[in-house]
Specification:
Blueprint lengths: L7 H15 L13 H10 L5 H14 L3 H5 L3 H8 L6 H16 L8 H5 L6 H12 L8 H10 L12 H9 L5 H17 L18 H4 L19 H13 L5 E2 L10 H14 L3 E3 L3 E3 L3
Antiparallel strand pairs: 1-3, 2-3
This protein binds a DNA duplex through α2, α3, α6, α8 and α9.
InterPro entries: DNA_glycosylase, Endonuclease3_FeS-loop_motif, HhH-GPD_domain, HhH_base_excis_C, HhH_motif, MIG/MutY
Family: Belongs to the Nth/MutY family.
Catalytic activity: Hydrolyzes free adenine bases from 7,8-dihydro-8-oxoguanine:adenine mismatched double-stranded DNA, leaving an apurinic site
Amino acid sequence: MPSGRVPLALLHERVNAWYATEGRAHLPWRHPDCPPWGVFLSEVMSQQTPLARVEPIWHEWMERWPTPAALAAAAPGEAVRAWGRLGYPRRALRLHEAATAMVERHDGQVPRTPEELLALPGVGAYTAAAVSCFAFGLPEVVVDTNVRRVLARTLEGKAFPHLTLNRAEARLAAASMPADRDTANTWNVAVMELGALVCVARGPRCGDCPVADLCAWNLDGRPAYDGPPRRGQAWHGTDRQVRGELLRRLRDSVTPLPVQALEGSGDDPLQVMRCLDSLVADGLVEPLPRRRYRLPA
DNA sequence: TACGCGTGGCG
DNA sequence: TCGCCAAGCGT
């Protein structure tokens, strides 16, 4: 439960002022001339992915596919190939599908409202709100992992939020929004940035924080996290690893690969074939006659 | 609601 | 070293 003791107006003022001087204004999708399509791309690419890895891929995509129509005209497999090692490659496929939907339903434009954005593949509550706000200036409630952590600490005095975003937390985020539209738009990006640069998960830099003297967690002596265990993500020997290796081989080949060239993608042959089937089912891989495979044309 | 989904860097 | 974490989404 929020303490109700943190003065929100002061919180907004401090965080927004901090962002004006310390925020990464050089990020290309934050440039005033960046089109909504560039913002849209950056948001999908940034899902569960550090920005440092996103930036070079973003530049390549914007040069190659500067509009939704340009991407929609390409083969989906080319989007998967250009995705490189960004991770979660289904996002590349969904971007291609979203671009197609923009051409068919939105006159080739990125839609403006959260409702329209939510209807696009690969767009959830966070991305819809972020694009509405950052590309079009609508004061939506933008809640990502950074915002959740900052609010958990400053308002609730906890080291980390719950494992999953629940209704009470969404209410808290909405209630913590500035009433003024311009202030709200800056707040959305500024509080995210504070979580990304200062109020980080491990080793928070409270000495550099503009609201350390208001933060319930800091004022309470930064008590350790005492909630349920935060489950890690298995990797070695998992389907994820095998799928990643299969896709890496297919990305690196200009021509279709025979199944023999893919068999060594894991230690368990049955697992490799199961993963290959799952990639086909996901639309990330296209099967050809004579047991050959390629990225979808 | 809980889980599966890539990849790589950092403490 | 190795587990944790990163501008989440779909089922």
